[in-house]
Amino acid sequence: MKKLSILLLAFLLISGSAMAQRSKGKKKKRVTKEQMDDSQNNNRREKTKPMDLAVRADNDWAITGELGWNSLAGFGINVTKYVTPNVAVDLGLGLGLQLFKSGLRGRYFFTKKKFAPYAGLGVIYAPLEVEGIELDSDGDGVIDDIVNLNSSLYAQLTLGFEYMSRGGFVFGMNVGYAPLLQDNYDEPAGGFNNSETKVGLDLAYGSGIVFGANMGFAF
Questions:
Q1: Which of 27, 165, 207, 218 could form a Cys-Cys staple with 59, CB 3.0–4.6 A?
Q2: Under a CB-based contact definition with an 8 Å cutoff, are residues 157 and 121 in contact?
Q3: Residue 139 sits in a domain of what CATH number?
């Protein structure tokens, strides 16, 4: 009877010790899992936070230098106002074949990320008018035609992309088409003496492709 009591007491002590250790292990595992979940959630928040912010929401304006053909400013400067992260309005001032030129354009960005493709629609205006331009299309020293150059008004349709860094660096390129909206030179009364004159004028001052590249900073 005494041995049985000792065995029963030993069994109870061993069982109690095992249950206590198992309970401690569960608590440790539970704490560790909770800590890991919190850590993962914090990491997720930190990783997604920069991506959730629209980079163009942090900058209202940008000033960029532009070089292009039938582009908004030609060789000049664009001033951009970011109305929303997806909408921008550009004002261009620069130099072109008719000396001074200016342009106004709206752009829609298809994404709010740093690298954003866009579509643009605008107008370009060159006010210079010159009368009595003598043209030697053949280069033989003989004046072929005399024309009057008028102001030019173009529409501009573009597709392009813009990259804006968190620090405000901006780089973009665009291509498109610029249709002439009004006649910008007067043909001689009897027509052109040299057909190449008209071809050259149309290439220089008529409707044509658009190409532009710009770089600058947003703030």
A1: 218
A2: yes
A3: 2.40.160.20
Same domain for 46 and 84, yes or no, is no
The range of the structural domain enclosing residue 70 comes to 55-218
Contacts of 35 (CB under 8 A, 6+ apart): none
Distances 29 to 16, 35, 83, 106, 132 between C-alpha atoms, Å: 20, 10, 52, 58, 92
Q: Are residues 104 and 156 in the same domain?
A: yes
Distance in Å from the first CA to the final CA of the chain: 92
Strand 130-135 to 169-178 pairing = unpaired
Q: For 157-176, what is each residue's pLDDT tens digit? A: 999 999 999 999 999 999 99
**Whole-model pTM over 0.85:** no
Same domain, 68 and 38: no
